[in-house]
Amino acid sequence: MKPVITLVGRPNVGKSTLFNRLTHSRAALVADLPGLTRDRIYGDGKLGDRPYMVVDTGGLSGDEQDIAGLMAGQARLAMQEADVILFLVDSRNGPAAGDERIADYLRQLGKRIFVAVNKSEGANPHVAVAEFQALGLGQPYAISAAHGGGVAGLMEAVLAELPEAVEEPGDGQEGIRVAVVGRPNVGKSTLINRMLGEERVLVFDLAGTTRDSVYIPYERDGQRYVLIDTAGVRRRARVDEAIEKFSVVKTLQAIDAAHVVIMVLDAREGVHAQDLTLAGMVVERGRALVVAINKWDGLPPEQREWMKKEIDRRLPFLDFAEMHFVSALHGSGVGNLFDAVQSAYDAAMHKLSTPELTRILEQAVIHYPPPLVKGRRIKLRYAHQGGSNPPLIIVHGTQTAAVPATYQRYLINTFRERFRLRGTPLRVEFKTGANPYAGRKNVLTKRQTVKRKRLKQHVKK
Is 375 left (phi over 0), alpha (psi -120 to 50) or beta? Predict the structure, then answer.
């Protein structure tokens, strides 16, 4: 699993700026105003060949006397989920009372803590960190999130404390890994129990009972599976209703570990914003997908029709996935999920031959040529497979950077239809090869110039 690194600190110390630098993105809103980040924001980053997950949290006010009031619920949960916590402080303002209260709380967590003294650009790093050593959380690191100074050194130290993420095997020899994801209380654990045919997973009618991912080996009709219940189970007595009802970190890790994801929707509640977020996570990570619309039994016809329209309207980007209407409680339709999972897995792992890919590309170009760019036609010459899970097709040609999104979608649909890749996202990348004739024009011109000079000299003579 990717290690989880959580950023905490008072408002306006630069957490979102550091988040954007660590993830090479602009996902976190950044401005010179405190309190912009209220919920947790998740992103992936990499240092060399070491991947990690970063969680940005809202600013923690230092005004409250009680630490329970000081720590927002979102930040507390992010710290509980973390493998490492980066505690950001402001070099320009020096230690504040709020920093000391946060440090007191962090010491109780038993987590690896690194103090990052931000906004240290232009200052002597030894002087910048000296005041913050009194926090008692180890040697602070002077950094500049805005300019990048000291960030690489900090991350090298952070990752040196963590085990390397192990690449999961992709051939499915240990079984097809199937992650079951969805909003709280849509019936994920009930569905897994029905798939297993036993009460293997704890189930009761309270959102948030599942907290840590559970990996369940299982075999059906000679095919091995590993079912992943996101994000695990706790005994009823240990479930605190005050804790968050949905663990994003564990769900993201389960999606990363899976070959196929079963996304569970509640037919009685429709498609929520959280469903859209989850679906986007699955597609962004390139996982094969089966959608299970649960609690279908007993719904009146008008409710069923409304739900189908909701899916078409709000989840059009899941047009590659099979939709199954099931009842996890009564078992109707659940058996069909295994065939859908197998089909999606086969599509995600499908081997595509270069000659066939190139032939399909040529036919697609003849049927619908790429557009002109500044009077010149985009030329797509050949294609080959660049990876699987999801299938990646690399198309080589000239001016490929100018291929419009509509034409890319046309090629994706063409490849998907011809190879019958149902249940998996499909990605196409374009590469422009070096022009072997680049620069020859000037060379030829110089040669012609020399010849002309020699001819003129000969004529004069």
Answer: left
